[in-house]
């Protein structure tokens, strides 16, 4: 099955770094890479012909919402993906009901959603309950025909930005659990990505996992050489 790489560039890139970044990624042929830069840099990625995702969205279509971007605006610009529910959004007060509203609004505009779920270290014992709750809350009232527009990104919170990744067999087990829960809730089989400290040194351990459809790569994606290595290993170039 074709794997997918989502580059979550967070707030890492400066405008004056883009030229070099693009130059170094010039020879990438794969189509299954989605770049999610800081919003104001999105037009540069679109101009280069990359598939682009936005890192967050507001659920309203238009109106007096200073600082926000609507799904309609994203769609019209040519953005095709949106990352929702990322743990770092909690810093800005995002709760599960916000994620749900954003998911419905994004799907309404035909945007594909990368829905982040994950447990804290403390929640490891209750992983099944925690992940199930996140999935049920996000998927309420989602029209059946829209389920396939959602990719699940499993990101254990303790693995984000720490250099730590789960043990492979434990990860495979969790991915199977998530697929089981997703099927129970939606009646569909959805793609599942792994995110959290994926880099050029651990990618070859992760690629063989059976239940994995790709990766959500954070800080390593801002380094073109690291990203290229991740791409090479993932797509076995
Ligand atoms: P990281 O981030 O690769 O820097 O750990 C992943 C993510 O938060 O999406």
Itemize the secondary structure elements and their pairings.
Blueprint: E1 4-8, H1 18-24, E2 33-36, H2 42-47, E3 51-54, H3 71-77, E4 81-84, H4 96-108, E5 112-117, H5 127-139, E6 150-154, H6 168-186, E7 192-195, H7 203-206, E8 214-217, H8 224-234
Parallel strand pairs: 1-2, 1-8, 2-3, 3-4, 4-5, 5-6, 6-7, 7-8
The structure holds 2-phosphoglycolic acid.
Please describe what this structure looks like.
34% of the residues lie in helices and 15% in strands. The mean pLDDT is 97. It is an alpha/beta fold. An 8-stranded parallel beta barrel has the order 1-2-3-4-5-6-7-8, surrounded by 4 helices. It has helices at 18-24, 42-47, 71-77, 96-108, 127-139, 168-186, 203-206, 224-234, and strands spanning 4-8, 33-36, 51-54, 81-84, 112-117, 150-154, 192-195, 214-217. Helix 5 (127-139) packs parallel to helix 6. It is globular and about 45 Å long. It has 8 helices and 8 strands. 2-phosphoglycolic acid (PGA) binds next to strand 8.
